[in-house]
Amino acid sequence: MNPVETLALHARKASSALKSSPGAIRADALNRMAGKLLDCHDAVMAANAADLAAAPELSEAFRKRLAVTDKIFDYMLNRLREAAALPDPVGRILEGRTMPSGLKVRRVAVPIGVIAMIYEARPNVTTDAAAVALKSGNAVILKGGSESLRTNRVLAAAMREAAVEAGLPEDVVQLVDSSDHGAVTELLKLDKYIDLVIPRGGKGLIRAVAEGTRIPVLKHYDGICHLYIAADADPEMAADLVENSKCQRVEVCNALETLLVDGESAPRVLPGIAAALRKHRVELRGCPETLKLLPDVLPAKEEDWDTEYLAPILSIRIVHGIDEAIRHIAEHGSGHTDGIVTGSLQLADKFTAEVDSASVLVNASTRLSGGGDYGMGAVAGISTDRLHARGPVGPNELCTSKWVAVGNGNLRK
Amino acid sequence: MNPVETLALHARKASSALKSSPGAIRADALNRMAGKLLDCHDAVMAANAADLAAAPELSEAFRKRLAVTDKIFDYMLNRLREAAALPDPVGRILEGRTMPSGLKVRRVAVPIGVIAMIYEARPNVTTDAAAVALKSGNAVILKGGSESLRTNRVLAAAMREAAVEAGLPEDVVQLVDSSDHGAVTELLKLDKYIDLVIPRGGKGLIRAVAEGTRIPVLKHYDGICHLYIAADADPEMAADLVENSKCQRVEVCNALETLLVDGESAPRVLPGIAAALRKHRVELRGCPETLKLLPDVLPAKEEDWDTEYLAPILSIRIVHGIDEAIRHIAEHGSGHTDGIVTGSLQLADKFTAEVDSASVLVNASTRLSGGGDYGMGAVAGISTDRLHARGPVGPNELCTSKWVAVGNGNLRK
Question: Which of A356, A362, A387 has its CB closest to that of B388?
């Protein structure tokens, strides 16, 4: 048995104990994890400094993702404590009824089992994923990027200690302590022990995971997010929402990539939007009609409509009517997050009914699509898959269910 | 584009229309399907007689599954009408809240899209699958066994006509009109158009489907179902439940295969159970302890504990205490349906908490595990997978969800 297989077997065993653990024990473990991490603050920072020092050749953006600042450290602790405070997702009765036969049936949420997280730089995924998995009674196997291995070692060791102090097996959280890519290949073969894989990172990583395993995968590839500024939109609200959606953070999956402006509102709203974006030095690429209204914008190419920039670039297209907007999103969107800005109930209803994306927003920044702003706390990832979970993957989404039926000698007729 | 690809593309187009169709239209279509089938009664029966005549070499069991009797015909019509009468699964608000920011978030059930059913003999799967798929707003592609192709042609044509009369595209229901196995291989490649595959039939078929596609699959392989007769069980209820679980129908996935009897109750309950089963000529295979109490029982071999007989055979093992019963089920069960017979609340609670199967029953026949007896109506299949749906796959299970968030200019801080 190779080391990865041993680790997966241990996860399976820990999962058995965890499945029937009371929610109070799991919540206690999460709070202890936050406490233990606070005790280890200096060790975390030293390990992270060593990770950063070991990789001077990495891009500035990558180093930014890898760095644990005090703000990120606090965020990690808070996410563990928030998860502890959430209601227990395990044991929820999701539906139920008494049948005419007298059979009392109920569908009850139970843990999935063993979850493998495969991710790249950010060390906060280590604690977020452990928080969500443990909250929902699942054992978790963490395989982070090799660049963050020193940091992840300290984080995982602290969380394992805390688990034991709470009375849980230490193997409810395990780190694949290897910078070898072969370890991922090994993990992906272990459908005997692993029930779900969640990859987070670049498209290449996610594709390699999804195409390299028979284990179910929850994932998203792209976040080509749209805002449609309807004919009646308020220019000030439109400018604020576009600015926040595009600029609040450009390198994330729910940042705005394509702006659709209704032909009727374009002359009224586009100048304000362009002014707001120029303050942030956002490069604008427009369709021919956009260029007529904003002559200093670059012309958009066909591939712009299918591009997730993750950068201070925005493509702008003028559409004529909501149907054209919905068609554009169906054709070019990635089913992640799309929104409308309108005061019309009819347009809002049509848009939310017909746009088939994981998140559909009305008069809200695309940056609000996510676990925290939806009240789900920490999430293990975001799914644009249609099966099992769609949108943020929080503690509820890491549960499956079983049917419990109680009779009094009931027979099939 | 080959014929199967064309058909899948048509399904995707029909699915777009179906996704936003009101529930009343879908219910009307289902009722019209039942009516149209009734009009076609003679044609269905003639086609089925031709199917049966064309395959005289098939086993009696297979011919029984293939035959559309008047009873089965009525059943098919009733399942369509029952599905019509169920509440609309589409548009259910599954959860929701108003966040402190004022953002109103809700998670809404929406159709999955295009579902492919791959199955063997039974023509009622054709109507059941169409009923469940259409009820939940999904387009369905039906690929039945070649032996039932004539029957399925008449059924599918009638359902397509009814769909059109209700104002839906005819391609919401499509039959792969081919007895060529290559058609299945083609279907399984079309992850571009098909969102979910549900295979029903023998283990070989299901394995071939699950291992031959990147499309998500809902399935079960085995139904190695257990009843555990606890120390305190009432002998009469135990005998009735064992008889019904084993004998009501032997060839189905929720029939009993292994009986676990607590050592304390064995002397009291086993004679009555054995007498009830012998009336049905069930062959009994027991562990050594069972043989001491029932000397004329055959000795069970180790592989008996892992065998789904689908036949009048039952393996019997005496266990000592509920923990041994739960361990036996964890080791040898298939996670389909397992039950306990007890008057003890403590034992029932422990069993339902610790047995990790899709259905866990207390004092009820294993044959009651299923869509009808759980109040779900027709089902497309049964899943022992842990992701998306576990247990019977009814209209609710053929939905995914999307998040809708409504704000008033809400920004990310």
Answer: A387
Closest chain A C-alpha to B204 CA, distance in angstroms: 17
Is there a domain that residue A413 lies in? Answer: no
Name chain B contacts of A403, Cβ cutoff 8 Å: 358-360, 369, 374, 390-392
Indicate the pTM of the whole model.
0.95
B378 within a domain of the structure (yes/no) = no
Contacts of B402 in chain A (CB under 8 A): 356-360, 390-391
- Number of CB atoms found within 10 A of residue A403's CB: 24
**Same-domain check for residues A158 and A14:** yes
Residues paired with B176 in a beta bridge: none
Nearest 10 degrees: CA dihedral of B295, B300, B301, B303? Answer: 180
| Cα separation, B114 vs B10, whole angstroms | 10
Domain holding A309: CATH number? 3.40.309.10
| Structural domain that includes position A325 | 225-368
| Segment-wise mean pLDDT, segments of 10 residues, chain A, 413 residues | 94 95 97 98 98 90 91 96 96 97 98 96 93 98 95 98 98 93 93 97 92 94 96 98 97 96 98 97 98 96 97 98 98 98 98 97 98 92 96 98 98 96
Candidates A95, A403, A408, A413, partner chain B, best to mutate (most B CBs within 10 A): A403
Q: Check CB contact of B98 with chain A, cutoff 8 Å.
A: no
Phi, psi of A227 (to 5 degrees): -120, 135
Instruction: Specify whether B267 is located in the same domain as B346.
Output: yes
Cβ–Cβ gap B103/A391 under 8 Å: no
Do both A163 and A252 map to the same domain? no
Residues A215 and A229 in one domain: no
DSSP A88: P
Distance of CA A323 to the CA centre of its chain: 29
CB contact under 8 A, B412 and A196: no
Considering the domain architecture, whether residues B200 and B231 belong to the same structural domain is answered as no
Task: Evaluate whether residue B292 is within a structural domain.
Answer: yes
